[in-house]
What we know:
Layout: E1 9-16, H1 34-41, E2 44-50, H2 56-65, H3 69-72, H4 88-94, E3 100-103, E4 118-119, H5 148-151, E5 154-157, H6 159-183, E6 192-200, E7 205-206, H7 208-215, H8 233-242, H9 249-279, E8 286-292, H10 311-314, E9 315-321, E10 330-337, H11 338-348, H12 363-366, E11 376-383, E12 397-404, E13 407-412, E14 418-421, H13 439-450, H14 455-466, H15 469-479, E15 495-496
Parallel strand pairs: 1-6, 1-8, 2-10, 3-4, 3-6, 5-7
Antiparallel strand pairs: 2-9, 5-15, 8-9, 11-12, 12-13, 13-14
Helix pairs in contact: 2-11, 6-9, 7-9
Amino acid sequence: xxxxxxxxxxxxxxxxxxxxxxxxCYGDPLVQTPHLDRLAERGVLxxxxxxxxxxxVPSRMSMLSGRHPxxxxxxxxxxSLNSAIPTFAHAMGAGGxxxxxxxxxxxxxxxxxxxxxxxxxxxxxxxHPGAGGANHGMLTGTAGPARISLIKSGAGQSAYxxxxxxxxxxxxxxxxxxxxxxxxxxxxxxxxxSVGFMLPHQPFVARKADYDHYIDIITPPKKxxxxxxxxxxxxxxxxERCGIMNVTDAEIKRSRAAYxxxxxxxxxxxxxxxxxxxxxxxxxxxxxxxxxxxxxxVGERGLWWKQTFYEDSxxxxxxxxxxxxxxxxxxxxxxxxxxxxxATMIDALNCPALPHSRGRSLxxxxxxxxxxxxxxxxxxxxxxxxxxxxxxxxxxVYQRMIRLGDWKLxxxxxxxxQLFNLKEDPDExxxxxxxxxxxxxVQDLTARILDGWNPEEIKARxxxxxxxxxxxxxxxxxxxxxxxxxxxxxxxxxxxD
Length: 497
């Protein structure tokens, strides 16, 4: 493509905490997701995409940078990405685009652009540690991994939905402005637009009409909680610390109904954006990508939220549509990483590759041209007492997952690993870590996990970084710096009916 105006557009939609299993095109019979389903019908759906980390900030900063958490040193929701590390947005800009972000990014620190040239709607959190968090009013505490998010569930309103409605309106307006220029035959540059949703992240609270649609038809979890004596020691400790050893049937039903309703509502908003794209005649040369930062366990195995390597937590939806450039209605079972989606967008828009990215472009795989694709993906979960990812002790947790072909190994530093064959055991119920016939596989996968990844070094590095945090927090608390980009979340936005 020689002409600048012939270059493709990008519409990159990134949600928060969407389990792909709760989507029509991924096989869920209850949820209504007609717009994502149609996107899949007109594009390529990846069945086995894994997030770089099953928690928000590390996953998102890895997705932006193309690097694993241990490479960019963002392991917790309290860590900040080094602004000297180039991102996907920097690559877009270096390639001649003016990358725009509308909505969620979850970047810590004063750099709220990360390479984007404009950001029309921000996050609800402070730009600086210690500068004051969001007040969720009646739903205080329900956004984190705690039992209260199940207790305070049901019909009402989550401020996160209000945020996403603002994001949707701003996105539609952005596309409408492009459409006006196109209809007036005014010269315009191709666009690179990222859209960040908060939904379907908890609180498990949805507006009454949406909630009522699901409360009487919602099904219980398919995978029962294992007996306490059979729980992996880390999973047992996690459930105890978060207060979810015994969750009532009513809490399960309310929370699941609300989650299905939130996915439904998110799909509706995505539909508004896709309609605006079509109405403004911008679809033909636009690559559309939908994905999420991690999953949601919605009560499966007695687990909620994310923070584990089970499929409901670590696997994410990935749908690509690009008319005339990618097949339509194709499903791919190869193992991929979110980092590969980063590389794919950069490749499709013919922008310079990130030099230290671990991502691999999916274009040739999607077209059926790549027969040498290695079915491999990693995910990482390292937390300490300052992590913001749950109630962890000073010693923290240092964990990594590998998916290689049919096999998945979960490595827990200082504790037993887990090994699953997902072809034979998609529900991850049969841990083969001690199976004599699988010891060669255990050794191979463990060696791959530990290749370049040293949990003791990570532990020391996180402790070193933790010593800086009190100064930064006190500075933010005392100086009260102005937020450059922040969405105004007000306590009255969060309520139960």
